[in-house]
Amino acid sequence: MNIDTAEQRLLRQSVGKIAERYGHAYFADRARAGGQVDELWSELGEAGFLGVHLPEEYGGGGGGLREYGVVLEELAAHGMPLLMGVISPAITASIVWRHGSEEMKRDWLPGMAAGTRKMAFALTEPDAGTNSHAVTTTAQRDGDGWLLTGAKYYISGVDESEALLVVARDGEESPSGRSPLSLFVVPVDAPGLRAQEIVTELVVPEKQFTVFFDDVRIGPESLIGEAGRGLRQVFAGLNPERILAASLSNGIGRYALDKAARYARERQVWSTPIGAHQGVSHPLAEAYIGVELARLATARAAELYDLGEDAAEAANIAKFAAADASLKALDQAIQTHGGNGLSREYGLADLWFAARLLRTAPVSREMVLNYVAQHSLQLPPSY
């Protein structure tokens, strides 16, 4: 289904040409070897694709989230769902752009747009998950700066990032009993910062880490915007995160269905292509419908965000729909291939955990249902 403008179609074609030179085998081989996709990342940055959504004055392309979603979806549709593409150019760059000082914007955004600098996002904690209200990592005033203490959990790409965007609670007591949050850009080589890898079954280049802060000294230049305004600031990155996670899921769904349809056309049993049987064709057709509906929902969420409208409901719905649709499409593609679906040669099964991750992160389907129940249906909150 064509959901693009003429310019977006050209963008998709241009990204596709780069993606075709790499492909899923490159992505998966690098991941299994513990490496990164540096060549692909650099080429995308040089072509302007990693910053297509950022303002031109900061080295970006002047487009919107809709355009950047095209980039990430097309990469995933070639078997390369880049999680770091959601984190650095989208979540952290969006927050820096919306709330950072002019000096911070000019320092960070051109490099992030060009792919020469990366910044990871440190929100989740062992006992808080994505509940920003329960963050316990603390920034205690120390002269003109702060001392950062605490821990963050399941932080992606620490080893390939220059800094972390850390969500921390004010160390001073608040009259309300809940200290406000602040956001800081913290260099990964800061004394007292330690990262420990979490071993997962994900076949992706991005590694996961627990990050410990033991009295990490950060200066006033590290603060994003105003102290105590972090809760509002962090939401500048959360809607883009959901929308672009949906774009990755949509790309995985397209990749799986493309491979399944091609196999079903070519594979013959009893002199008949297996795709001629409704037991094969109907499940694939239904999975295709689900993926295309999710793509429409994602495009609409991105359009609302780019227009400056409230995109929270649309972003959550798109993320929910896309994650479920991609898993269904991938599962059916594996089933269509039979035993070959589990073979490394066919490049399907190794995407399972990445697709499954997107059902849980960056926000779980249960939290999306909580949001819709409370905000869309006006039902009493459950937590």
Give the CA-based shape. Answer: globular
- Unreliable stretches: none
SSE pattern: HHHHHHEEEEEEEHEEHHHH
Record field, number of beta strands: 9
* Proportion of residues in extended strands: 5-15%
Annotation keywords:
383 residues; alpha+beta; seven-stranded mixed β-sheet; 11 helices; 15% strand; globular
Notes on the protein architecture:
By secondary structure, the chain is an alpha+beta fold. A hairpin with a 2-residue loop joins strand 2 and strand 3.
Write the layout of secondary structure elements.
Elements: H1 6-20, H2 23-32, H3 38-46, H4 65-77, H5 83-99, H6 102-114, E1 119-122, E2 138-142, E3 145-156, E4 163-170, E5 181-187, E6 193-198, E7 208-218, H7 230-266, E8 268-269, E9 272-273, H8 278-306, H9 312-337, H10 352-360, H11 365-376
Parallel strand pairs: 1-4, 2-4
Antiparallel strand pairs: 2-3, 3-7, 4-5, 6-7, 8-9
Helix pairs in contact: 1-4, 4-7, 5-6, 5-7, 7-8, 7-9, 8-9, 9-10, 9-11
Brief write-up:
The chain is α+β, with helices and mostly antiparallel strands and 383 residues long. It contains eleven helices and nine strands.
